[in-house]
Amino acid sequence: MKKLVAVVLVLCVVSGALFAGGAQEGKDELVVGTSAGFRTFEYREMGEVTGFDIDLMKAIGEEMGREIVVRDMDFDALIEAVSTGTIDVVAAGMTITDERKERVDFTEAYFVADQAALVREGSDLNLNSPSDLNSSDLTIGVQNDTTGAFWVDENASNAKIQKYGKYIETIQDLENRNLDVIVLDKPVAEAFEKNRPTEMIFVIPTDEAYGLAVKKGSPMLDDLNSALKKVKNSDTWDALIKEYFGS
Amino acid sequence: MEDLGQFLLYSAIAVGKGALVTIVVTVASLLLGFVLAVPLSIGRTYGNRPIQFLIQLYEGFFRGTPHIVTLFIFYFGLRHVGELFGNPAFQIAIPPFPAAVLALGITSSAYQSLIFRSSIQAISRDQYNAARSLGMGRWQAILTIVFVQALRLSIPGLTNEATIVLKDSPITYLVAIPEMLTQARGIIDSAMGKVFFEVLIPVSLIYFGLFVLSNKLFEMLDEKLKIPGFELERR
């Protein structure tokens, strides 16, 4: 009897310990939501999420005197997560759009990008400008819920559009010939161009600006903006741009 | 990747970290399930009608609801619970790891409760009667005589349950848990898609290895607790 009670107590304690270990989320921590898989802004290396956005948030966190905790989830889960307070801020190469502004508040822009069209190396589709994409002979791949997807929905609605959860899936389908072209953010397209047998055939100038997103009405917005401003004016910023975009 | 050796090393580290998280989540959930299932199964067998009814509701809900849905309820759903009472500001905010373990553990407790209940019922009523006739109190008889034997009978069922929870663990990626499958997808992404099966196959083998390991552990436990010649000896 005593043994059974002892065993059960030990199990309770162990369960409790395992639990408590995970429950710590200090008040001083800044919970950053992101979606790994968006080279070079956030991706996994050696099991940890790193990238431009992560390093930027680390620098901002330092300015604000808070340590960051990174939570990796699907891109389309981020807005819901920050709106409910599950995470404090979104740093995921998220473009500032009017629709998104209805649900979250954005900081000042920290990066400007365009979209680009990516095809298999040596494919002869004779596409020279964005309007060529609006053809019913084409199958275009995009990542779901991104500005690339929105652009294609609006400007290439004659084409067959396929939506994916992660960019890597679009690349695989491109190479398998299930897709003819992918529309995605230019920095990511450049990264893929370097590493896979693909070519970036043209740029779609959308002039999008990435911003950090917080809950609507969040008191943190001003602090984030001033920290962001300080970081942008510092050497850290130049070092980051050099490290990730190599110029 | 230019350097194959470095890629393999980095990948192994990533998968290793993921495997560790998978193991911790699985073990913690099973333990929670066990700790909850003991009183649940006993209450369902020996409790009065109201208690039995409540436990039946609990079991029914957690066995009948898809595990992903339960996970979502604990992580996302509870944050909206205030809206039910007209106070949207009120939230039950559970961080990822406890939410994952609570969801998987409570679900597992519903299944484990069934396992224990059928084992309890398999222990002949004679055991209970004999214990009482020796002067033992009701709960003493239940816990020290009946339930202890029921635990032994439950081992095959628990082996199976351990496998189920292990194979459920990847869904926790949805609540930002960096378990093994997440790491595998991260590697595929860093390699820009150059490797796919090369990553998934070793990871499947690791899941399989964990399955074999847990089965072996339960088998050893079973061997140890076997009492030859006793009326409950297994074939």
Helix content of chain A: 25-40%
Oligomer: heterodimer
Give me the strand/helix succession of chain B.
Answer: HHHHHHHH
User: What is the share of helical residues of chain B?
Assistant: over 70%
**Which regions of chain A have little confidence, pLDDT < 50, spanning 5+ residues?**
none
How would the global form of chain A be characterised?
globular
Widest beta sheet: strand line-up of chain A: 9-8-10-7-11
Count of DSSP helices of chain A?
9
The interface involving the most residues is between: A-B, 42 and 49 residues
Tertiary shape of chain B: flat
Mean pLDDT of chain A: 86
Strand content of chain B: under 5%
Structural class of chain A: alpha/beta
Distance between the termini of chain A: 71 Å
Major sheet size, sense and barrel closure of chain B: none
Low-confidence stretches of chain B: none
Mind summarizing the main beta sheet of chain A?
Answer: 5 strands, mixed
What does this entry look like structurally?
By secondary structure, chain A is an alpha/beta fold. Chain A has a 5-stranded mixed sheet, with helices on both faces. Chain A has a 3-stranded parallel sheet with strand order 4-1-5. In chain A, helix 2 crosses helix 8. Chain A is globular, with a radius of gyration of 21 Å. Chain B is mainly α and 235 residues long. Chain B starts with a helix and ends in a 10-residue tail after the last helix. In chain B, helix 1 runs antiparallel to helix 7, helix 4 crosses helix 6 and helix 5 packs antiparallel against helix 6. Chain B contains 8 helices and no strands. Helices cover 74% and strands 0% of the residues of chain B. The model of chain B has no long low-confidence stretch (mean pLDDT 89). Classes of the chains: A alpha/beta (247), B mainly alpha (235). At the A-B interface, helix 1, strand 2, helix 6 and helix 7 of A face helix 1, helix 4, helix 6 and helix 7 of B.
